[in-house]
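Q: I'm writing up a methods section and want to include an example of the input and output format. Could you take the sequence below and give the corresponding predicted structure tokens, formatted cleanly so I can copy it straight into the document?
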Amino acid sequence: MVDRMGSTIRVGLLALLAPLAVTTAWAADPPALVASQTDYKIHGGDVLLVGVYDDPKMPPMNITVTPDGKFSFPLVGMIMAGGKTPEQLRVEMETKLRKYVAEPVVTVTVVDVKGNVAYVIGQVSKPGAIAMNPAVNVLQALAIAGGGNPYAKMDSIIVIRNSAGGQRVLNFRYGQVASGKSLEQNVQLESGDVVVVP
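A: Here is the clean output for your methods example:
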């Protein structure tokens, strides 16, 4: 009787533990990892977690993208990351690694967006740098900066933007945008933009 009961308990325990054994097996040997399918464009100064799945010689490591948008990786050498999405970078690295590694599975994850920064200066409560994760428009940047102080000329705000042809100025009239007019002024900020509140 006791043996039969013990046998029943063992069978019950095995039934309960079977899914756990499968889960543990997956944890020890997970399926191929896929990089994030984001539209975020990598910038100089961003920190990436880059590695090759199941290759002990190339474990995931944090890499800071240089100001010119590049970083170095074993076997690949210098690679341009700036302006690419993590997915584009992953595909490019896998292509280059195929010369040295059979069926490489590369993972690329953005860990910190230190390079995607705009600035708000002038008559605001909290002037300084704003990390954009992934994007911020002018109105949002002003909100993050605590809004204008009592001396701010909110209808004379400008955004200074660097472009291939040099710097250009975009006007932003807070009163118009706040009342729902001329919303095209509320542009998405780009890395390096400076919002000036006189």
